[in-house]
Design goal:
Blueprint (H helix, E strand, L loop, with lengths): L14 H11 L20 E2 L2 E2 L9 H8 L1
Antiparallel strand pairs: 1-2
Length: 69
């Protein structure tokens, strides 16, 4: 049976380290880093004169869904 484990948290909180550790312990696992699905910078919203990398709108959700299907 396939399982999908999602790990959420603020930037630099150890999500990738935890995911890599889990992958090393789980058979047939794949680590997908959210950074692989970030839209081009010109498509990311600007909030108070800054690029908002943290907003869900910065992610290419179609590409993400395609990767997990």
């Amino acid at each position: 049976m396939s399982q999908l484990i999602l790990i959420a948290g603020v930037s630099r909180s150890g999500k990738s380290s935890l995911a890599k550790d889990l992958c090393s312990k789980l058979e047939d696992s794949v680590h997908l880093d959210q950074d692989e699905f970030v839209k081009p910078i010109e498509e990311i919203p600007i909030i108070q004169d800054r690029t908002d990398w943290e907003t869900p709108e910065s992610i290419d959700w179609k590409k993400w869904k395609s990767a997990i299907d």
